[in-house]
Known about the structure:
- By secondary structure, the chain is an alpha/beta fold.
- It has helices at residues 3-9, 38-53, 68-72, 81-85, 91-94, 119-133, 149-157, 169-185, 201-218, 234-241, 246-249, 254-268, 278-291; strands at residues 25-31, 57-62, 96-97, 103-106, 138-145, 160-165, 190-198, 223-231.
- It has a single domain (26-288), classed as Rossmann fold, CATH 3.40.50.
- The chain contains 13 helices and 8 strands.
- Bound molecules: adenosine-5'-triphosphate and magnesium ion.
- The site of adenosine-5'-triphosphate has 20 residues, from helix 2, strand 7 and helix 10.
Amino acid sequence: MDQASGLRSRGGTPPEENPRAHLPRVISITSGKGGVGKTNVSANMAYVMATRFGLRVLVLDADLGLGNMDVLFNIRPKHTLQDVLMGNRSLPEILVQGPGGIQILPAASGVEEMTSLTPEQNLHLLEEFENLSTDLDVLLIDTGAGISENVLTFNLASRETIVVVTPEPTSRTDAFALMKVLFRRQPDKPFLFLANMVRDRQEGVGLFDLVSRVADSFLPGLSLSFAGHLPADPSLTQAVRSQRAIAEILPGAPFSKGMEQVVRTLLSRPPRMGGEGGIGLWMKRLTAAGAGSGE
Length: 295
Ligand SMILES: Nc1ncnc2c1ncn2[C@@H]1O[C@H](COP(=O)(O)OP(=O)(O)OP(=O)(O)O)[C@@H](O)[C@H]1O
Ligand SMILES: [Mg+2]
């Protein structure tokens, strides 16, 4: 059975009739300013992709700070990426099952080393990721905020990067600062703009226009497209408190509905392959970007 018919038989919509659709799409979710909603976006995007679109999704919790994803989903990982790097566990052994069949790769401990691996560790991890990738459609990476080397590296390695921006002026300016640094290092990198905590679509588009205009003036050539908006939704707080994804417990809530639309938009875009794609290439780029970070 091909992947598309597999997706249909699970009641989902195939992402594309693309001959290379077997390659997992690697999407990083990032921001300049902290606390703008990256982790909630990653978790709910994963849930919606899996349950409404029949995709097999792995979320990599790449935030070096407090591992948020496990708190959000009320899971307690026994092992982390650190155990894989030390050779004590295989990658599939450390994966944790989240709601709706999504898988979570707990990496808060070990993720920093991912960008500075020894050649042996690199090869080992590459093999582990490549084995995993045959069972995946999407790898979502929840990064930390800001312009630390680690955040930059994960974003540079990912072919698609979603920048989460809220109406707060500092969120806009910090998003711009982050895109500027990434653009300097990788001028052909396209960015997807996701407006979060907005009143309505109009406010989201307004925010996008503001940032686009500044980018047009100061970073000519930067590719920035609108991926959609997510409303400020008080019921999200309720879901966070009960440690569940809002898309799971309140599928009719404005945030959940908004996320469905965002995912639809995202999946209607052709994945950015450019000859090669998938996790193997992502790992290679991760290593290369990490190795180049001392320049
Ligand atoms: N659309 C929204 N409506 C209401 N509250 C929201 C929305 N998006 C995020 N929040 C709230 O904002 C807070 C921060 O969200 P989250 O932890 O997802 O941000 P983050 O960008 O991952 O933060 P960090 O940079 O610390 O990792 C949470 O309390 C969350 O409930
Ligand atoms: Mg977070």
